[in-house]
Specification:
The chain is α/β, with parallel strands linked by helices. Helix content is 40%, strand content 15%. Strands 1, 2, 3, 4, 5 and 6 form a 6-stranded parallel sheet that branches. Helix 4 links the parallel strand 3 and strand 4. It is globular. The two termini are 14 Å apart. The structure holds flavin mononucleotide (FMN). Flavin mononucleotide binds next to helix 1.
Length: 190
Amino acid sequence: MATDGNLDVVVICGSLRKGSYNAALARTLPRLAPKTLKLRAAPPFDRIPHYNFDIQHADGFPAEVTAFADAIRAADGVIIVSPEYNWTIPGALKNAIDWVSRMKDQPFKDKPVALQSCAGGVLGGARMQYHMRQSLTSIDAIMFGRPEILVTFAAKKFDEKTLELTDQPTIDIVIQQLAAFDAFIRRVRD
Ligand SMILES: Cc1cc2nc3c(=O)[nH]c(=O)nc-3n(C[C@H](O)[C@H](O)[C@H](O)COP(=O)(O)O)c2cc1C
């Protein structure tokens, strides 16, 4: 955790594909964040095996799970930028959350978490966000409320070639959310 007045925030992207709009949004965040919010990408979670208590019992937590958990535990806050798959949380990300939820020093406990999503359709990933709120509340995360970031019709909001976020209203609301999340983390912590 940062001790210099800045806040150390880890950003988790729920999409694994190269051309991901959610990954593109995650890459944009450092440019839009207040100077006091230091953002860094979470360690990869795509090679974590499917959760199985037998693996945990026999071998302990896989190294990727430990690295993912350590990054969350060490951070002042977490931002999850994720698509919605079949009306809910993408499986790989849910699997990573299920693994870390079994740890004794559970990394999401009392952790401020903000959500963002990009989707191809009109709901912008809203159902993923509500399921994520429910899931993370069950493991004692402290969920940030508003403003919400739901990027609808994502293909229209990013440059087709460079994947740069070009939609000004989206840029404006992301700036507002990041500033509000900075204040939220300090309020929760103090
Ligand atoms: C397996 C799968 C399920 C999807 N389900 C939904 C869905 O429930 N709601 C939605 O808005 N979009 C859904 N989509 C479309 C995604 O919004 C779209 O592919 C988006 O670009 C994925 O995010 P990404 O660009 O960050 O990879 C789905 C896509 C995939 C591959």
